[in-house]
## 1
Amino acid sequence: MSFSLLDILFPRTCACCETPLNSHEQEICLHCLSDLPTTNYHFQQDNAVGQRFDGKIPYEHATAYLSFQKGSRYREAIHLMKYHHRPHIGTILGRYAAAELQQVYADATLLLPIPLHPARLRRRGYNQSLYIARGMSQIMQIPIDERSVIRTVKNETQTARHGYERYLNTRDIFRVIHPESLSGQHILIVDDVVTTGSTIESCAHAILQAATDVRISIFALAAT
Ligand SMILES: [Zn+2]
């Protein structure tokens, strides 16, 4: 292992296991990267992520790269990525995901990270899904569209909502402002963590209504 003077002055630690990183490592140590809890959902067309969208929106492929239990050190890394100013964790994991999944999404033409509401983007300072998409784009050589869809509703309280109320709540939280950039594309929607899938569903719904001749695929870095 080699350490630079900067590492000694400002020790960087692995987002998963907190061991010091050497100068060749970024955000996550090689040991943790070699042990990622991948779902392998991309080997199954009918998988636990796709099932969340069956009958709701038409999609080509849907998968999540990682799956973990409560208390997993990988869950901690996702938390740091989202809430503690370490969005580059997303870029690194996005690269790893794309290297494994690019066959599945080979004919996608556009990466569309789920937009944050402008107020939340200002507060957080970054959109973690955009950082994930950047990592994927580096491997897949597909452009990112971060301007055609905007989020108009903050949707903060979603976890407390159920059933029809949640459906109404998530139905119109996105608006497509540049449908012409999306028409004719196979759009790969990129999200950080998929839970019920209602946010992605709402985004896909807005796209399908506004643009013509569009195909949708779905990627989440992790699934709960
Ligand atoms: Zn580690």
## 2
Amino acid sequence: MRPLTDPQIRASFVNCSRRDAAQATLPADLAGRDWDRLDYLGWTDARNPRRAYVVTWLDDRPTGIVLRASDGATKRNAVCVWCEDVIATNEVALFVAKRAGAAGRNGDTVGTLICADFACSANARRRPTIVEAGDDAAAVVARRVAGLQDRHARFVASVARG
Ligand SMILES: [Zn+2]
């Protein structure tokens, strides 16, 4: 993905107040990110472990959503809806996002079961097993990455639409 700056991220949030956006704790290591190997930027708020953020590019615009981690919904044996990685051993958690605009103000939310550490991009780029890969490992990775890009973008777009 194209790199993001702090101001771009703060201005990107579609489903929270300006005040919440201003108070969000941004990742400390933005400059050190390997953006070429990321499909979205996701992180947990360092000051609030139940709050998380996902920012991605939609139609050439940074689009960010605030997510709330659902109570007790972390599962070790669940499969992430975005990267669909069946081998990853990281935890998968239910995250809920308030819809943008009037829908969200009326309490309308949408949920998704995704990697709790937002490592989907690394999972999608994992070297395929022989069974998965057949004779074309690069094609398997390309297909996974394309699927992740499509699924996460559709979720963010549906939150942004309100
Ligand atoms: Zn994932």
